[in-house]
Amino acid sequence: MSRGEPEEVERLRAELAELRARLAQAEEAGRRWRETESELRQSRRMLQLVLDTIPVRVFWKDRDSIFLGGNLPLVRDCGFDDPADLIGRSDYETASAETAELYRADDRQVIESGEPKLNYVEPQVKPDGSAAWLNTSKVPLRDDEGRVIGILGTYEDITERRQLEAQLLRAQKLESLGLFAGGLAHDFSNLLAALLGHAELAEAALPAGAPALVHLRRIEGVASQAAELCRQLLADAGRGELAAEPVDLSALMRESAEMLAVSIPAAASVRQELVDGLPEVMADRSQLRQVVLNLIRNAADAIGEEGGEIVLATAAARCERGELAGTVVDDGLPEGEYVALEVRDTGCGMPAEVQRRVFDPFFTTKRTGRGLGMPSVLGIVRRHRGAIRLESEPGRGTTVRVLLPAGPREGRPQEVASGGAAAAAGIAPAAGTVLVIDDDENVRPVTRMLLEQLGHGVLVAAGGREGLALFAAHRDRVACVLLDLSMPDLGGEATFRELRALDPAVRVVLASGYGAAEAREQFAGLGLAGFVRKPYGLAELEAALAAALGR
After folding, report:
1. Distance between CA 184 and CA 239 in Å, rounded?
2. Which pLDDT belongs to residue 386?
3. pLDDT tens across 297-348, in order?
4. CATH 3.40.50.2300 for the 419-548 domain, yes or no
5. 178 contacts 238 by C-beta, under 8 angstroms
6. For residue 19, what pLDDT is reported?
7. 245-405 — its CATH code?
8. Which residue ranges make up each domain of the chain?
9. β-strands 336-345, 397-405 pairing
10. Which of 333, 371, 452, 524 could be disulfide-bonded to 364 (CB atoms 3.0-4.6 Å)?
11. CB neighbours of 61 closer than 8 A, spacing ≥ 6?
12. How are beta strands 131-142 and 148-157 bridged, if at all?
């Protein structure tokens, strides 16, 4: 071996060692790359999992509003199953042209201004055709140099929240109407009580055949009609009585159509699709008739003189919770068997903004309307534990469908028997002193005179505290207390409790413009001796006191 051979061998060995070292480094780099790639894939999967799991929709677009990606809920809202199907598409391929233009206008505003647009509400139509409302935010996407290269957006479906807010607002409006109606009924009933009382006293003081008698009786008749209007106002506001009885909705629809036949425009035809043999509903017949009459009148007004058709229909209906939840009235109604009455017309229809307000108190599109027709319908249906579905489109007519629970239900308590029935049964006036506690200066004197005519001694107090003092001073004389429900200084319930504290056996007859059911509910278990509804006359007062005193 020559001298140069060992040197060559050493060189080759060194090169081989270097190659082995480089190979080891390359293998290590490859291993690290594979680990990094695996970590990246896992990170991407985790990021996609997070995006697909968060309870909001997420998407990102380029400067031309072309989708670069989105999470799975967003992709499904657009009608796709795979996020890859969304990439490269525009809003014009996932929404209507009108909605797409609205979305792109927002995109341009964010891209051109470089400022975010946060928490604004916009519409959406889902692939199944249902409408939704979105709470949307969009922010600009920037590159490393700060240039806007697209947008990042999120939105939340707030449709259910808006529906609940609308229901709450409607309930608050109805509650306000109820408070207004209650206050009006209280004051109006006091005025009518004084009017009726003085008319009866004047009638009793005149000889038979006196010319003034006919005028007094007409006054009584008009006052009675005014009292009925007052009760109807309470019913509209959900605070009146329900005289529950079995009602055949098909028969009720036929009767109502006959009543309104002369007021329906000649150009309108009425077609009946009424099913016989349907289950009856337990309801207040007069109030349901008011519902039907209002709906038919509205249908006739919508048709006007241009001509069209009104359809009156009834049917049995099995309602699931989903269907009931989509109605105007959804107070947690149970799914089950219902009976439907429906009024359809081919009239002018209603735009969406009118549909949203049609059940609002005092809202009307008529020149001479009171705006209480549809709120009245809503209040009556709600009190019967029913639901309403409204469908309308401008130029294509309106359908109102009322759902009422089928089968017997327990009716509400009925009012105290009328004075006429009591008089016919031969109930004689009860003796003893009556303490009248009423804050109305018109009611007190006429009630005193009516009671004196019935043979009672009378003590009169202008409020709860004065009444308690009189009762404490004359407890042995007082046979019964006639107590007003609504008084400013000390309310009827508080006064009643104080009276019972003074004498647990005291007999108290409550007087109120509200119905007996509401009064009994408020005084349940407290030992109320009776109830008389304002405005009352001599016969009603006699019957209530006779029943309370057991005579």
Report:
1. 12
2. 87
3. 888 888 887 778 899 999 998 887 777 776 776 566 788 889 999 999 988 8
4. yes
5. yes
6. 81
7. 3.30.565.10
8. 1-53, 56-157, 165-236, 245-405, 419-548
9. antiparallel
10. 371
11. 67, 68, 107, 150, 151, 153
12. antiparallel
Q: Which helix (H) or strand (E) holds 113?
A: helix 97-113
Distance CA 227, CA 418 (A): 15
- Measured in whole angstroms, how far is the alpha carbon of residue 410 from the centre of its chain? 23
Q: What is the 3-state secondary structure (H, E, C) of 221-249?
A: HHHHHHHHHHHHHHHHCCCCCCCEEEECH
Around Cβ 98, how many Cβ atoms within 10 Å?
9
Name the residue among 97, 106, 153 with its Cα closest to residue 125.
97
Reduced to 3 states (helix: H, G, I; strand: E, B; else coil), residue 5 is helix
* CB-side neighbour CA atoms (13 Å) of 340: 21
C-alpha span between 551 and 455 (Å, rounded): 14
What CA–CA distances, in Å, run from 517 to 184, 485, 524, 532? 19, 13, 10, 12
Helix residue spans in 124-211 (DSSP H):
159-205
Please count the residues of the chain: 551
When the candidates are 1.10.530.10, 1.10.287.130, 3.40.50.150, 1.10.390.10, the CATH number that belongs to 165-236 is 1.10.287.130
Beta strands 67-70 and 433-437, pairing class: unpaired
pLDDT at site 437: 93
Establish how many alpha carbons lie within 13 A of residue 109's alpha carbon, considering only the half-sphere containing its beta carbon: 11
pLDDT tens digit string along 167-188?
A: 777 667 666 766 676 667 767 7
pLDDT given at position 50: 66
- Alpha-carbon dihedral angle through residues 21, 27, 32, 38, given to the nearest 10 degrees: 180
Q: Where are the alpha helices (DSSP H) in 427-484?
A: 443-453, 464-473
Low-confidence ranges of the chain (pLDDT < 70): 1-4, 38-40, 43-44, 46-51, 128, 170-171, 173-175, 177-179, 181-183, 186, 229, 231-243, 326, 329-332, 360-372, 408-431, 515-520, 551
Give 74's contacts (C-beta < 8 A, 6+ positions apart): 57, 58, 59, 86
Residues of the chain with pLDDT > 70, as a percent, come to 81
Q: How far apart are CA 546 and CA 173, in angstroms?
A: 41
Residue 297 is predicted with a pLDDT of: 86
What CATH number has the domain spanning 56-157? Answer: 3.30.450.20
SS (H, E, C) 332-395: CCCCEEEEEEEEEECCCCCCHHHHHHCCCCCCCCCCCCCCCHHHHHHHHHHHCCCEEEEEEECC
